[in-house]
Write a structure and sequence with these properties.
The chain is built from 14 helices and 9 strands. By secondary structure, it is α/β, with parallel strands linked by helices. It folds into 3 domains: 135 residues, ATPase, nucleotide binding domain (Nucleotidyltransferase, domain 5), CATH 3.30.420; 127 residues, Helix Hairpins (Orthogonal Bundle), CATH 1.10.287; 129 residues, no CATH class.
Length: 425
């Protein structure tokens, strides 16, 4: 099959090998777990095919390809395939079509959702969604939509996403543990800056038990707290605060054992997940070390953050201008314009959430450790901007620095005009 890749700026007609003008058809695919629906439109936005359903297996994929080839042959058209990114369910079909080197587009679900919201009739089916995808495929203008990393970068991206999923599971464990602690001994979470620190977990394991709830001495607590390497005076003060919380605890005896059991089971899960995260992070660090990327020279970007940025962006040269990578990360402002009214809203939040999250965290750290970002943050705060607004702006500036350092293959440096004393101690 002939493949023509024009990005988002393809002309309405392209030429075949003989020089004749050839039309295109747009094949939209709505994917679910066990099946996928197909809708086809031509360049005049006329529906060529609607409501064809195939099972998500080898037989269904081969049947789909065979029937699409017939449609393409009858219409003498160049096919453009598009499917909505649907968690992991679109991957088998995506990889199958990639094997034929077709013009293949992966669409953001937001594109389909916004188009669906403009309909007059509130009708939604998988068959209609496939047609909407075909229509959205005609109207899109992004140049980087069809990129998918391969090789080591693809492997690194999956490890980063595994870590992200483990982090989400860890958050769930923390929320559940906090709930149980609030029921068993309200106020305990105010004693520690980090409720899940080594010393705090040691206290919980020692004092919160089914057989002898809160049956612990001051010396036992001091022993548990000594793991934090604090002085004796600090440990004694914390031990007294903990004993005071235990003493004033009020809980129903009928439910106590159940909450204690759940708390310890949850903490066991948390510690297992924590170890798994550490293992995955070591793998990510090895990938990043072998990559020798210059973005590691930017203060505020550690090896794990660098791994996420490298794997999600992939090939930096596919972004011709800085504005494109800002839009890809979803850090560009959304704009609403109607008549004389023009309103700039929140950031668009398009693109990979994991990339934005990594940039936010790096910006938060960089605002204190990176002289360039620290100076920029202080300037925004001086104008009365809210902290969250400042961090988002810093994240955007950090992304532009990453773009420059990475694309020009140069190490980060602090310009002479920047006062290095702006870094927080």
């Amino acid at each position: 099959m002939v493949s023509h890749r024009y990005g988002g700026y393809a002309p309405q007609h392209i030429k075949n090998q003989r020089g004749d003008t050839t039309k295109r058809i747009f094949i939209g695919i709505d994917v679910s777990k066990d099946k996928f629906d197909v809708g086809v439109k031509d360049e005049q936005n006329r529906t060529v095919l609607m409501g064809k359903t195939y099972p998500m297996n080898r037989i269904g994929l081969d049947q789909f390809k065979e029937e699409m080839d017939k449609v393409i042959s009858e219409l003498k058209a160049i096919p453009v395939y598009g499917l909505e990114a649907s968690g992991i369910y679109h991957l088998p079909l995506y990889e199958y079509l990639r094997g034929f080197d077709v013009d293949l587009h992966l669409l953001n679900p937001l594109e389909i959702k916004k188009k669906d919201q403009r309909k007059v009739r509130k009708t939604k089916t998988d068959k209609l969604d496939a047609v909407f995808i075909a229509e959205a495929l005609m109207l899109r203008h992004l140049e980087h939509h069809q990129y998918r990393p391969s090789g080591k970068v693809a492997e690194l991206r999956e490890y980063c996403r595994i870590r992200n999923r483990l982090m989400e599971k860890s958050k769930v464990c923390k929320i559940q543990a906090r709930r149980d602690l609030d029921i068993l001994c309200r106020g305990y979470d105010k004693i520690f800056t980090d409720l899940f620190s080594q010393s705090s977990l040691a206290v919980i394991k020692k004092a919160i038990r089914k057989t002898r709830l809160f049956d612990v001495s001051k010396e036992d607590l001091i022993t548990c707290l000594s793991s934090s390497k604090q002085d004796r005076e600090w440990c004694e003060k914390k031990a007294e605060e903990i004993l005071d919380v235990f003493k004033n605890s009020v809980i129903s005896k009928d439910e106590c054992n159940a909450y204690v059991t759940e708390l310890h089971l949850t903490l066991q899960q948390y510690e297992v997940i924590k170890d798994q995260i550490a293992r995955v992070e070591k793998t990510i660090e090895r990938f990043v070390t072998a990559n020798h990327s210059n973005i590691r020279t930017i203060p505020g970007i550690g090896p794990v953050t660098a791994g996420i940025i490298i794997s999600e962006i992939g090939d930096i040269h596919r972004f011709k201008r800085p504005e494109q990578i800002v839009a890809f990360a979803g850090l560009d402002p959304s704009v609403y314009e109607s008549g004389r009214s023009k309103r700039i809203g929140h950031i668009s939040k398009r693109g990979p959430p994991i990339l934005r999250s990594a940039l936010y965290q790096a910006a938060f750290i960089g605002a204190r450790s990176n002289p360039v970002l620290a100076e920029y943050y202080s300037r925004l705060k001086g104008k009365g901007k809210h902290h969250n607004v400042c961090v988002i702006a810093v994240a955007r500036k950090l992304l532009l620095i990453i773009y420059s350092v990475w694309k020009n293959n140069k190490e980060f440096y602090v310009p002479e005009r920047i006062d290095k004393s702006s870094i927080s101690s």
